[in-house]
Amino acid sequence: MLVLGLDPSLTNYGWAIYDSEAEGQSRCPQRGRFQTTPKMPFVDRYIYMREHLRELIQTYQPDRVGIESPVFNDLWSEGMYGLFLYSNEALKLEKKDVVFFSPGQLKVHARHFLDRPKGWKMLKGDMVEAAKRNAGNKGRWNHNEADAFWAALAAARFWQFFEGTLQEGDLTPAEKHQFIKIHTYQRGKKAGQTIKPGLIHREEDRFFLWSVWSEG
């Protein structure tokens, strides 16, 4: 499976291709960044990113996509959410299925790969180190490319599970928590209520099947 990972940024929009069937450096055959500057009219920056993303998809024809979604609360910004919307417009137009991961979720995958202790704060350097090790590529990596790589890898695992190539027993503890979690409250006002925060339960919320989407 060929998966495109995306780390949206108005300055350095990271992307990486992950090949789930390859080994060594072939695991990440291509990676890079789209770049704009604040000197450009703000709407032109979004259009530039959207169109370059469409060209990238048309060039590499990935099977599926994973994208880092903007975070909220104190780290939320109108600019990042605007870019996220334009990015998803490109994915919908190109009919590419996509799954969303928060920055924290991607850090969990990289931390698990590096075997860092629970609670370890994954910084940019850690994400780059994890990507370089996993991809078997010791060249120079930008941290946006590294985040995009982990978006691609995590998405590949999700889509393989979605398709049935991976079974529940094949998932790591972190993947089980992110992909299939179901929780039933035992105490308090919500006792007895069941929620399904796992990604696999959240179609048209945290993942979208644009390849089969019907407007009608």
Which helices and strands appear, and what pairs or packs with what?
Blueprint: E1 2-7, E2 12-19, E3 31-35, H1 42-60, E4 64-68, H2 78-93, E5 98-101, H3 103-114, H4 124-135, H5 143-163, H6 173-180, E6 183-184, E7 194-195, E8 207-208
Parallel strand pairs: 1-4, 4-5
Antiparallel strand pairs: 1-2, 2-3, 5-8, 6-7
Helix pairs in contact: 1-2, 3-4, 3-5, 4-5
Task: Walk me through this protein's architecture.
With 216 residues, the chain is of the alpha/beta class. It has a single domain, classed as Ribonuclease H-like superfamily/Ribonuclease H (Nucleotidyltransferase, domain 5). Helices cover 41% and strands 16% of the residues. It contains 6 helices and 8 strands; from the N terminus they run βββαβαβααααβββ. The strands form 2 sheets. It has a 6-stranded mixed beta sheet with strand order 3-2-1-4-5-8. A two-stranded antiparallel sheet has the order 6-7. Strand 4, helix 2 and strand 5 form a beta-alpha-beta unit. Helix 3 crosses helix 4, helix 3 packs across helix 5 and helix 4 crosses helix 5.
Keywords:
216 residues, Nucleotidyltransferase, domain 5, 6-stranded mixed sheet, two-stranded antiparallel ribbon
Strand order of the largest sheet: 3-2-1-4-5-8
Structural class: alpha/beta
Contiguous uncertain segments of 5+ residues = none
Give the radius of gyration.
17 Å
Could you name the CATH class?
A: Alpha Beta
- Fraction in beta strands: 15-25%
Reported by name, the CATH topology is Nucleotidyltransferase, domain 5
| Shape label | globular
Total number of beta strands: 8
> Average pLDDT, to the nearest integer?
92
The quaternary organization reads as single chain
Count of discrete alpha- or pi-helical segments spanning 4 or more residues: 6
Give the full name of the CATH homologous superfamily.
Ribonuclease H-like superfamily/Ribonuclease H
CATH architecture: 2-Layer Sandwich
Gap from first CA to last CA: 29 Å
Largest sheet: 6 strands, mixed
